[in-house]
Amino acid sequence: xxxxxxxxxxxxxxxxxxxxxxxxxxxxxxxxxxxxxxxxxxxxxxxxxxxxxxxxxxxxxxxxxxxxxxxxxxxxxxxxxxxxxxxxxxxxxxxxxxxxxxxxxxxxxxxxxxxxxxxxxxxxxxxxxxxxxxxxxxxxxxxxxxxxxxxxxxxxxxxxxxxxxxxxxxxxxxxxxxxxxxxxxxxxxxxxxxxxxxxxxxxxxxxxxxxxxxxxxxxxxxxxxxxxxxxxxxxxxxxxxxxxxxxxxxxxxxxxxxxxxxxxxxxxxxxxxxxxxxxxxxxxxxxxxxxxxxxxxxxxxxxxxxxxxxxxxxxxxxxxxxxxxxxxxxxxxxxxxxxxxxxxxxxxxxxxxxxxxxxxxxxxxxxxxxxxxxxxxxxxxxxxxxxxxxxxxxxxxxxxxxxxxxxxxxxxxxxxxxxxxxxxxxxxxxxxxxxxxxxxxxxxxxxxxxxxxxxxxxxxxxxxxxxxxxxxxxxxxxxxxxxxxxxxxxxxxxxxxxxxxxxxxxxxxxxxxxxxxxxxxxxxxxxxxxxxxxxxxxxxxxxxxxxxxxxxxxxxxxxxxxxxxxxxxxxxxxxxxxxxxxxxxxxxxxxxxxxxxxxxxxxxxxxxxxxxxxxxxxxxxxxxxxxxxxxxxxxxxxxxxxxxxxxxxxxxxxxxxxxxxxxxxxxxxxxxxxxxxxxxxxxxxxxxxxxxxxxxxxxxxxxxxxxxxxxx
Length: 712
Fold this sequence. Notes:
By secondary structure, this protein is mainly beta. It folds into five domains: 13-233 and 248-291, Sandwich (Jelly Rolls), CATH 2.60.120.1440; 326-445, Immunoglobulin-like, CATH 2.60.40.10; 454-542, Immunoglobulin-like; 548-652; 657-712, no CATH class.
């Protein structure tokens, strides 16, 4: 019977190639299995360590399209792989994906050995982190080789990364980042104590020539000093280690192991060959293979060999006596499925358990029945005699009333009997009719999926609305799960959730960035193993608060055109509830310059030229008094806009200095011991013909001296 692909695909790592000695250790179950060809098409679980021997290798195909070739003498730890559940409809085969079909997260560690990896373009929000004793690689869509080798004498770890395409961010053990692009490599070394000893970026490096003899044989890898001349040992490490290295053969380091075109071509060709080989092997598997794959951690039942055939009498087929022919071909009884599954091979009839939760939208079938008429709900039976005569009406059913459909897991044996005496007209010599008896088993099962439900944010057009808070933490409003048989608490306990079913959510919400986010609740199953259809909640982070603008400098600004100073807009900055401080240098401010055309109505018109051109022209005129308005506009990332403005006044006059007129006599005589009243002054700047002078009285200061005069 062929299986049809129905339902969604979840995170799966499939074994698509395997050679030589390979083992898998599941840390969660503490279960180790030696893998052979029977493991092809099976899946690797999280928390699994794959280890290959000197002749071993294994190829892995991920449900997001990633391909990983685990080469000989390698220890590779698959720590965690998750992926948003997706429908395979219309999606290319996993080995042919150029972009992953849904967001994913992958965390793994190379303890030692060699990996060759091809990763499709990852979606926004996905992450692929591959750590090693040399450092950690953050990977996007890319193709690369990673190698790490331990020196058994010095304890140092050396190795490197060759990046064929894409980009990788490599973080060393001290937290320093190195960004690699296509065609670059990284060669690194760390000590046995976990300290960085050396790191060097270059063009592609022939790592196999350097470390291949170690991985495939018993050769000690080169020392750090050989690979990185001038590298010193760290304090506390063995200073006399070189005396012991001569006891072991070391590979010869080729002078052209990096930098030459021949090396680049050789390295790229080898990696491409490994990937192309793995692509061909992975092409035999589709998403249906992943959907029904069994874990390598599940024991394989032993295959029982067929017993030896018993020899026939006189060395051939025995010919029945004429009387025996009368009793050939007893009647046949067939069982037909109802709404639930039927296994003809084991004669196992599954029947839906009684619904406990009346709110569940799918009802049960009621008490068990097995009928003589085909039914879409109940199992049924039929019978025929040797000549095709219908014997269904003569079938006798025993023990059907013992089936209690309220008891999940109950198994009850039925007996169905029929004879064909009415048709054959001849019983056995004993008087018994020719008959058939079958004994199917009825098993009460739960085959209904839990249903995930929530009210807010069911569609992208009507998302769950939350006001953004910088540094805030999103609080999931929660979901409910309705099952036909189990309570929500029983499902939570089965899933191992400590707080709520929202722990099943894939995705995240950033309270500090306005926008629409999605949270997909997935992989929730009841204790019977029925997996609920995933459901996505849409969340919109709202931001309706505009930024607050603060001007740098004064308002207004007076620009003296007689001055040699160059005018520079002092600018502004803004504070936003989500974006934080928006600096002038961020480039997010828009400045609109307007000129005052009517001081009475304060009417401004936008300039049709630049302010710099206005200044250049104004400096050529003998008398200027013009007011401009600088409007500062800024938007936050949510599109909320604020504006602030300041006046800029251009002053120019044929008179270089202002004028002060003193009122009263000079000198001014005042009678002692009487209150002094300053007769005052008038200060102004003459702007020339046709322009009113500018009053500067508020700019004048008076200083009194202890002598007999007062200066202003």
